[in-house]
Amino acid sequence: MVDKAIKIIFVDDDETFVKTFNREANKKKIIINHFFTAEEAKHELSLSTEKLYAGIVLDVKGLKDKESKIPDHSYFPKALMELKQLCPSLQVYGITGETDSRDDWSETFKELTTIYSKELEDINKLLAQLKDDSKKIPHIKLMNTYKQTFEKTDKILAQVEQHSLLHALEYKDKGGVDIAKVLSSLRLVLEAIVKYINTIRPEVVPTEYIQGDVKFRPLLRHLRSDNYLCSNNDYLYKLLDTAYTCMSNHGSHISNQSKYGSCHKPAGINSVRMCTFAIMDIIEWSYSLNN
């Protein structure tokens, strides 16, 4: 099986080299998200997007922040440590255009990272190592396992919703409030899918159903009455209905549980799994509407 393309964070202030690196990365199905400074990269990763990436490449000589005009080396040790602490699951690789100094940098930081030069041969060594290392990362393994779904999520979901879906797939039972948070985040993923459908097929999801809060029950009735779900018989309707009910009652509206009576039992790990895989089926359906 061919693995899904992976994304990396790439920090370098040299736009010409960025183009070179991007060209070589694309050949290996590596997509770069480029930032001029480490501060910008840290901001991106602080938005709960770690699980969307497979690694970080950091220029040894760079700009400390947006206000800096002249790149230097002084920022690198701190930036390296901060990125490793912020994203413990990701490897951080150093890269330098000062080929004569690469060995010295490698010795200095040998306990923390590997330093590569910006020569073409070294770039390809770095990219090959990154691909190999990424296969050991749990969330990359999951994305490859469910490649058929995650090849579509970039078009349908924002980064935060993609991260929530991965988190749910990785989820281990911690009970109570934690399960409620996961189910609540999955409801937001489902609502994001509905809003995506509105942009590509407004007759399927008319705007009136997504203005303000998503009006999911009326939307379901619309989908069923206008036969948008008929090709899947009742399966997709029941899937949407059951998943949304679970994510609402046990997630977003958990504080209202008492009104459902004594039969309203707390959700468990199987509820998370059911809702997660239901959303993955719904992603497949929504993607098919535009293809």
Structure, described:
The chain is α/β, with parallel strands linked by helices and 291 residues long. It folds into two domains: 6-136, Rossmann fold; 146-288. The protein contains twelve helices and five strands. It has a five-stranded parallel beta sheet with strand order 2-1-3-4-5, sandwiched between helices. Helix 1 links the parallel strand 1 and strand 2. Helix 8 packs across helix 9 (176-200). The longest helix is centred in the middle third of the chain and has 25 residues, at 176-200. It is elongated, with a radius of gyration of 23 Å.
Can you count the helices?
Answer: 12
Helix content: 40-55%
Which class do the helix and strand fractions yield?
alpha/beta
Distance between the termini: 23 Å
How much is the radius of gyration in Å? 23 Å
How many beta-strand segments? Answer: 5
Strand order of the largest sheet: 2-1-3-4-5
Q: What is the overall shape?
A: elongated
Number of structural units classed as domains: 2
Strand fraction equals 5-15%
Question: What is the arithmetic mean of pLDDT?
Answer: 86
Order of helices and strands: EHEHEHEHEHHHHHHHH
Report a brief summary of the structure.
It is built from twelve helices and five strands. With 291 residues, it is α/β, with parallel strands linked by helices. α7 (147-156) packs across α12.
Main traits of this protein?
291 residues, 2 domains, Rossmann fold, alpha/beta, five-stranded parallel β-sheet, elongated
